[in-house]
Write a structure and sequence with these properties.
six-stranded antiparallel beta barrel; six-stranded mixed sheet
Length: about 350
């Protein structure tokens, strides 16, 4: 599926001295649109998972999936898209289809290669489509991707120090093989800023931040930083399937910035519903804005999580790390953002 299962949440814990993120909601959600929220960044390395996504470009069902070897094309049941509006830019995906149908593939995110007014071609092979159980009448939604540029667009304005700081703010991501990818924030004239790769200083504003994907934000000073806003202003109202790669330690966390009543889930649900294997471990970390310490550790056994220490629930105001056993790629299913 090309990049559809490559959410780059891998994190080598020895790479940084970690801080934490304290999410402070600035508004209440009566629909899925909240604008933006703020989180307190420590003057060190902070673990962040975006709580917001873009609006839905389409919501409905699949009328017909068509196998095409290395790609799969689906016909939409209703409505229409602007032809080419969701086409990838070179090899960078612009949008994704999310499978919202209840089942083993619920929450799966698949990158879009191209689109017409009524069809969408996915980076999904015949075998992958079959394994996902893609079929007629499956419910889906389509969204444009969140990127580094769009995720922090609102953070470009405000009163210092509570804004992005060129030359002082950095981001680290990790790919499915455990490779570290570093980004720096630079000024490109006036008040305009841009995320660039450390290697070669290439424009990286269009780097995709997938739903449920964790990354490291490195700040030089404490600040209350805006996340979301502009196009990234919607709480995700569907479950999210986050891949867990056997090559490393995987960072993910809460997708509910408002910390509502659904922000806590029983740990056993992640084991039974997420496809984790015996021996896989989840380690939770606090988000109190002052220290980065473990609050619980849970190991899968017989389809359930046994608490090594900590409570029997995982608080989705916390970030957590998933450690797969035996180098096997698996996934977890996070609840909706409401």
């Amino acid at each position: 599926m090309k990049k559809s299962l490559v959410l780059v949440p891998l994190l080598a814990l020895t790479a940084f001295a970690f801080g934490v993120v304290n999410v402070n909601a600035q508004t209440q959600a009566f629909s899925d649109k909240v604008g933006y929220y703020t989180f307190d960044v420590e003057p060190s390395s902070n673990l962040i998972v975006s709580g917001l996504v873009t609006k839905k470009e389409f919501q409905g069902t699949i009328e017909a999936p068509t196998a095409g070897g290395s790609v799969t094309t689906i016909t939409l049941s209703s409505g229409s898209l602007t032809a080419g509006a969701l086409d990838e830019n070179g090899d960078v995906p612009c949008a994704y289809v999310e499978l919202t149908e209840a089942g083993a593939s619920q929450g799966l995110v698949v990158d879009i290669k191209s689109n017409t007014a009524t069809t969408v071609t996915l980076h999904m092979t015949d075998a992958q489509a079959s394994a996902a159980g893609l079929s007629v009448d499956d419910s889906i939604c389509i969204r444009k991707h969140v990127t580094l540029g769009s995720l922090f667009e609102s953070a470009q304005t405000g009163t210092p120090p509570n804004v992005l700081a060129p030359g002082q703010d950095f981001i680290a991501m990790f790919d499915e093989s455990g490779n570290q990818i570093l980004f720096k924030l630079v000024s490109i004239g006036g008040t305009d800023v841009q995320w660039q790769t450390f290697a070669g200083s290439v424009d990286a504003d269009d780097t995709v931040v997938y739903p449920g994907q964790g990354f490291v934000f490195v700040a030089s000073v404490a600040k209350s930083l805006r996340i979301g806003g502009e196009s990234v202003s919607h709480v995700k109202d569907t479950a999210t399937r986050v891949p867990v790669f056997g090559a490393g330690i995987n960072l993910t966390g809460q997708i509910n910035p408002l910390n509502g009543s659904s922000s806590t889930v029983d740990a056993t649900n992640l084991a039974a519903g997420g496809g984790l294997n015996n021996g896989d471990i989840i380690v939770t970390y606090d988000n109190d804005g002052s220290s980065f310490s473990q609050t619980g550790a849970y190991q899968v056994s017989g389809g359930n999580f046994n608490a090594i220490f900590g409570p029997g629930t995982i608080d989705f105001t916390e970030s957590f790390v998933v450690v797969p056993s035996g180098g096997t790629d698996v996934s977890i299913l996070l609840p909706p953002g409401f």
